[in-house]
Amino acid sequence: MLDKVVIVGVGLIGGSFALGLKAAGAVRRVVGIGREPQAMARALELGIVDEVAASFDTARDADLVLLAAPVAQTGRILAALLPHLGARTVVTDAGSTKSDVVAAAREVLGERIHQFVPGHPIAGSESNGPDAAIATLYRGKKAVLTPLPENADDAVELVAEAWRACGALIHMLSPLEHDRVFAAVSHLPHLLAYALVDDIAAKPHADLLFQYAASGFRDFTRIAGSSPEMWRDISLANQAALLTELDAYLAQLTTLRARLAASDGAALEAVYANAQRARREWIEAIEAGSPPPPPNQEPE
Question: pLDDT category, 291, cuts 50, 70, 90?
Answer without folding.
Answer: low
